[in-house]
Amino acid sequence: MTKNPYLRQDFAASLVVFLVALPLCVGVAVASGVPAELGLITGIVGGIVTGLLPGSSLQVSGPAAGLTVLVFEAVREFGLPALGVIVLVAGLLQLVMGALRLGRYFRAISLSVVEGMLAGIGLVIIAGQLYAAAGLEAPASGVDKILGLPGAAVDAFGSTDALASLAVGAGTVAVLVGWKKLPGRAARTVPGALAAVLLATVASLALGLPVATVEVNGLLDSVQPPGLDAFGELASPALLGTVLAFTLIASAESLFSAAAVDRLHDGPRTQYDKELMAQGAGNTVCGALGALPMTAVIVRSSANVAAGARTKASRVLHGVWLLLFAALLPSALALIPLPALAGVLVHAGWKLIPFRQLAALWRGHRGEALILVVTAVSIVAVNMFEGVLVGIALSVVKTAWEASHVRLEVVDKGAGPVQACLSGNATFLRLPKILGSLESLPQDRPVELDLSGLHHLDHACRTALESWAERHSHSGIEPVKLTMAA
Where is the protein situated, by its record's location annotation (predicted)? Predict the structure, then answer.
């Protein structure tokens, strides 16, 4: 067996990633409406199973804030037993897509759609977790969450317990924001999320604050493989739509994360089809255990690279540390205040909203900025899957519009036929402009219409041009002369 020459760097990096992943695994699980242990299980599988497989050597997988909204809706609609089936089938689909070498095509999805998806998810997470920070129950839909915030604020300020809970959540966010600004380098080596949760836990215990804490069921008790009756729900079109949403969104998020991580290091590049299969293998195992779905997570991955990791050993070891924690110290979870986890997720949701990218797009590419905003608003107003479909549809329409550049040159020498030449790409999107220009030509003069300069002429345009030529060629005027492309 070949000795890993970078084992010391990888070992140190694995501890950093473990400390970053621990509060996020628990927080994502609680926000998703499932036992906290299921988040740890997904983190363990992401480290040990997906971490061992080829694809991307340095990115780290686990439960992601980006799927929180989708998981919460799925559990609410279909129940916790069905979650395992959804994740299992999604994992199998990822394996099939990877085997068919479809991983590279996920990079063709517009970046504005992906950023809009993350922005919409971030908004829903923030709105929902503000209720959790106050110990209140959040409404079901994204719109209701946002519209209900003023009423929730009134309720919270009228309750001592809610104010104490809010104080813990706000303190957690304050620590997260200010942690990297601390002057001491030694303090900054501790991940901000872990420091914030630890400080919130100590403060809650020391002051005896009346805040809710994580409910602990035990690792083995939380593992609930889906039964045969749960597989029967695959006949439901709604459940199949959820499976498709999990598959597409988890795959896109993982492969976009891989592209981002590749820019952070100079090691081996990601093999996208193999990485998609690795994600599929991990989700298949997670589904079989009834756990949360996984994606590659940019927060953990960037922490892994920044900590000096050189090989996949660091991410595998981080999974081992999660397993040891879940097996040996499960009771420690019961001390963590829920508003502290809500604060961690509010901070994570805020970071999902691409404020700088949106400002840059608005200055240089307003069409892309519009796609980003519409995708985000659609996710908040409807749901994640349909919101992403709206964004993709807008992106396709915008691309088609930009690709259908057409130019009409008219030469009128005052006598003889009017010469009109079309060049570029004539599609139905440009028909109003083309017909408007042709119909403005003199009605009492013959016309020669040259289409040889067109790179593309779709059926709608061809039919419309032929109809115009027939109308123009009335009695007493020579028929329109059409010159088609060779």
Answer: Membrane
